[in-house]
């Protein structure tokens, strides 16, 4: 059985309902997912911080801060790092990996797509409790 | 333990005592000689080691009429010969670094270094020394480093454990630049210029309390060196903690790493955890005073520290740290295996040189 | 034999109490919330001059914290008032959600413990104490109060302890952990005698600015450093208590060290013991080894949780210090707070868990938790 065969796309939000640099807590198959909007792109990661369970959708989106030299602050990838609302650990919203320990500490990330309402009418998408209209665009999260 | 039998131990912390300003006088220029005489400048023993306090000298090393550790003959008979020390690093603790006048401070440091070279290094091949500097004025400190660095018997730079500003702060960096250039580690020794209360809580009543709490100042200095980016900016620099104890290391590692995970964006040039940085770049002298009596706990502590190449053996002569003829007594074998020779040689490249 | 079997956690006496949180921070929406508890003299004073601390700014501390109001970002009430100021949210988000049976209030803001004007400090401490009773303890009996007192004037502090001892709902006495002199110094002893007399433990949460640099080597640059230095000031505080002889003089005094971590507890005992022989002549008033006072008179809260590189090292720490010495605290609603469900990354026996989450706190506070 191929991996793609088991993936299902779930409609979780309407484009426009999450403001830029905003977030929405959604549930997919009972799992809490934090959905983020940055400059027209959408990202989904598990809402549960792997450290102590902080609710990541309440986190703050900040830039990636690095440095080539003490006293120099280089900010790239604006609003693409998520700072946990509790202890401030940083996660890359594209991968869910933590900054300080990317290989062992990560929040699970999920692929996100945007589709027209008209396409959704054809399926095979799951819009569990979500009313879909053909005029709008929708955000979909992929999950097994 | 019995490690004394393997000859050639390297003692990384020995304290020659300045008998008084009279002994240093020949090493000042005429101006300062006159000032010292005219104003009666003397009595600069540092308050962390009052000469008569039990900790300041082993009873059997006290000789009536002179300060413990103030003559080469005493040091040879009491420590160098009986312990079989092949190399001993002299860390002279005297008041120069604590003076407020930057000029007088630098003059006393300079005389102290000259005295160490002439009265000790010139007279016993086993001895090496640290360049004593004052951080009151950084340019003068760098001058002092440049003055002595060509003398290969000076193997590191010594600063007081506490002064006006935390050591990581960037106005100190010319010192680290000079240290790195000359391959000299920076040693921080317990003791304070008393510019600040000994702890955040103010001035305690007892010397005992100050000695117990000095671990906190060591930790603060390490945090400062890490946070300001000294280890990032000077990748070849090593730092040595003298008389810091080691049992606080696990707590320091974990708290520092946890805070780094949460706040590293405040100090983004710190791209490794404090634990990783310390294990790689910082060394610690042994005579420790903070080891658990229970051998199981000791094993657990060392397992938590998880680094066997960060310890430097020291007798701390003439301070009263141990009894009898074996300075390794009471120190666990696991700590000693590399601390007696290998780690000192790796820390101080100049120790391998013959003069 | 493992030492954990030697140090059996204390059994809970009230089986109904399963989770005690020894550090919860209530706050005011604004200083106006304290007005009902202040005389017009102090209302007007605070309106005009405000509070005065040993710091540069009117209303910020010297080191900006990790987050606004040093709070968890999910703890702000919807109306934008400060985290910790809304009892209903605290109940919903913390007490109910985490099954907290008893919570110890630690009011840090408004800040009165280190106010420079001593009369003003007493007035604000008194107001905070009355406000705790009226606005938190009476409406929510799971919460217990902390008698906050101004330490620099021991006489006034004792009077406030006497006043509050007649009220219901207080479980401990708090004073600033960075006072002008180390807390072991004799000028503060009347406060400890009053606390011990009324059977109140001291709950000592890192707080205050005495104007001394936060390290022996000067002020740091970064919050990364300062936050840790403040924890370390609690190591110095415990050292001061023991070496100055407070627990020798008051063997029944209980001291709970709050929000300073606990990995340092046993090593501090080793260090004090290691130096004891050399300094006995300076402290002839100490009749026991320092670690014995540590083991008898002191407790630590869990938060901010120690996070060893290997989780099992946590068990070693607890073996060293004694499993009966540690009590759970969340620090709700602050940014570095701990969740009782996730904070411990080790497996614990039912007895160990029960001790940390309830039994040990009951041993300290006894009937004061009823």
UniProtKB/TrEMBL annotation, chain A:
Q: Could you say which residues form the signal peptide?
A: none
Tell me what this protein is called: Rieske 2Fe-2S domain-containing protein
Checking InterPro entries in the record gives: Rieske_2Fe-2S (IPR017941), Rieske_2Fe-2S_sf (IPR036922)
Q: What keywords is this UniProt entry annotated with?
A: 2Fe-2S, Iron, Iron-sulfur, Metal-binding
Q: Locate the Rieske domain: which residues?
A: 10-121
**Organism superkingdom:** Bacteria
SUPFAM superfamilies cross-referenced by the UniProt entry: ISP domain
From TrEMBL, chain B:
Q: Tell me the domain of life.
A: Bacteria
Q: What's in the keyword line of the UniProt record?
A: Lyase
Domain Amidohydrolase-related span(s) in chain numbering: 10-349
- SUPFAM superfamilies, alphabetized: Metallo-dependent hydrolases
Q: Where are the transmembrane segments?
A: none
Is Lyase given among the entry's keywords? yes
Keyword Lyase attached: yes
Please list the coiled coil stretches: none
Protein name according to UniProt: Amidohydrolase family protein
User: What organism does the UniProt record list as the source?
Assistant: Sabulicella glaciei
UniProtKB/TrEMBL annotation, chain C:
**Entries under InterPro entries matching the protein:** ACMSD, Amidohydro-rel, Metal_Hydrolase
The Amidohydrolase-related domain, residue ranges: 20-366
Q: Which UniProt keywords apply?
A: Lyase
Name recorded for this polypeptide: Amidohydrolase
Instruction: Specify the species.
Output: Sabulicella glaciei
């Amino acid at each position: 059985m191929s991996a793609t065969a088991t993936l299902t796309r779930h409609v979780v939000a309407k484009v426009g309902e999450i403001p830029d640099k905003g977030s929405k807590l959604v549930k997919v198959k009972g799992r809490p997912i934090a959905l983020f909007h940055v400059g027209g792109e959408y990202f989904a990661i598990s809402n549960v911080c792997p450290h102590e369970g902080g609710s990541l959708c309440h986190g703050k989106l900040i830039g990636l801060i690095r440095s080539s030299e003490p006293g120099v602050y280089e900010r790239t990838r604006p609003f693409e790092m998520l700072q946990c609302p509790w202890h401030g650990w940083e996660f890359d919203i594209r991968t869910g990996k933590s900054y300080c320990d990317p290989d062992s500490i990560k929040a699970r990330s999920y692929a996100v797509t945007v589709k027209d309402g008209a396409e959704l009418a054809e399926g095979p998408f799951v819009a569990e409790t979500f009313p879909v209209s053909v005029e709008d665009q929708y955000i979909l999260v992929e999950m097994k | 333990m019995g490690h004394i039998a393997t000859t050639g131990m390297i003692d990384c912390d020995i304290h020659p005592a300045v008998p008084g300003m009279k002994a240093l006088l020949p090493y000042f220029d005429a101006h300062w000689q006159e000032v010292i005489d005219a104003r009666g400048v003397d009595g600069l023993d540092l308050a962390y080691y009052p000469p008569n306090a039990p900790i300041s000298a082993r009873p059997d090393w006290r000789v009536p009429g002179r300060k413990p550790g103030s003559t080469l003959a005493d040091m040879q008979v009491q420590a160098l010969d009986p312990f079989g020390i092949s190399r001993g690093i002299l860390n002279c603790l005297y008041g120069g670094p604590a003076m407020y006048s930057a000029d007088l401070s630098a003059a006393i440091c300079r005389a102290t270094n000259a005295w160490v070279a002439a009265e000790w290094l010139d007279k016993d091949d086993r001895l090496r020394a640290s360049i004593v500097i004052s951080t009151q004025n950084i340019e003068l400190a760098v001058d002092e480093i440049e003055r002595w660095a060509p003398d290969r018997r000076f193997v590191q730079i010594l600063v007081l454990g506490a002064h006006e500003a935390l050591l990581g702060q960037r106005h100190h960096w010319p010192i680290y630049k000079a240290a790195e250039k000359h391959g000299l580690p920076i040693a921080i020794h317990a003791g304070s210029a008393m510019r600040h209360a000994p702890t955040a809580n103010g001035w305690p009543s007892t010397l005992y309390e100050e000695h117990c709490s000095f671990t906190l100042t060591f930790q603060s200095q390490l945090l400062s060196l890490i946070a300001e980016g000294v280890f990032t900016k000077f990748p070849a620099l090593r730092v040595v903690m003298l008389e810091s104890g080691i049992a606080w290391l696990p707590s320091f590692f974990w708290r520092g790493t946890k805070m780094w995970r949460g706040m590293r964006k405040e100090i983004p040039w710190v791209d490794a955890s404090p634990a990783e940085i310390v294990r790689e770049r910082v060394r610690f002298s042994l005579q420790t005073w903070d080891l658990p009596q229970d051998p199981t706990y000791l094993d657990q502590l060392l397992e938590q520290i998880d680094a066997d190449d960060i310890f430097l053996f020291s007798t701390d002569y003439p301070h009263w740290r141990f009894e009898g003829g074996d300075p390794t007594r009471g120190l666990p074998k696991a700590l000693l295996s590399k601390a007696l020779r290998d780690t000192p040689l790796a820390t101080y490249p100049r120790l391998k040189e013959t003069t | 034999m493992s030492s954990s079997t030697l140090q059996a956690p204390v059994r809970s006496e009230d089986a109904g109490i399963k989770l005690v949180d020894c550090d919860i921070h209530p706050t005011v929406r604004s200083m106006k919330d304290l007005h009902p508890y202040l005389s017009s003299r102090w209302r007007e004073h605070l309106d005009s001059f405000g509070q005065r601390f040993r710091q540069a700014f009117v209303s910020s501390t010297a080191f900006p914290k990790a987050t606004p109001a040093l709070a968890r970002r999910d703890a702000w009430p919807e109306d934008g008032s400060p985290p910790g100021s809304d009892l209903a949210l605290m109940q919903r988000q913390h007490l109910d959600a985490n099954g907290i049976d008893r919570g110890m209030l630690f009011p840090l803001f408004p800040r009165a413990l280190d106010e420079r004007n001593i009369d003003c400090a007493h007035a604000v401490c008194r107001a905070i104490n009355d406000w705790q009773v009226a606005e938190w303890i009476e409406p929510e009996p799971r919460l217990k109060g902390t008698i906050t007192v101004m330490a620099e004037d021991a006489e006034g502090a004792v009077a406030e302890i006497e006043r509050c001892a007649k009220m219901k709902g207080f479980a401990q006495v708090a004073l600033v952990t960075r006072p002008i002199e180390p807390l072991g110094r004799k000028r503060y002893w009347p406060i400890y005698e009053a606390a011990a007399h009324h059977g109140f433990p001291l709950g000592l949460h890192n707080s205050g600015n005495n104007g001394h640099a936060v390290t022996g080597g000067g002020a740091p640059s970064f919050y990364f450093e300062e936050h840790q230095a403040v924890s370390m000031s609690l190591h110095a505080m415990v050292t001061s208590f023991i070496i100055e002889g407070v627990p020798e003089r008051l063997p029944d005094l209980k001291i709970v060290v709050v929000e300073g971590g606990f990995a340092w507890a046993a090593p501090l005992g080793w260090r004090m013991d290691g130096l004891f022989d050399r300094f006995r002549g300076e402290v002839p008033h100490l009749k026991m080894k320092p670690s014995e006072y540590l083991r008898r008179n002191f407790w630590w809260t869990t938060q901010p949780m120690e996070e060893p590189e290997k989780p099992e090292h946590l068990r070693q720490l607890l073996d060293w210090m004694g499993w009966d010495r540690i009590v759970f605290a969340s620090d709700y609603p602050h940014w570095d707070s701990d969740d009782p469900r996730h904070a411990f990354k080790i497996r614990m026996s039912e007895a160990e868990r029960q001790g940390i989450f309830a039994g040990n706190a009951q041993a300290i506070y006894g009937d004061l938790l009823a």
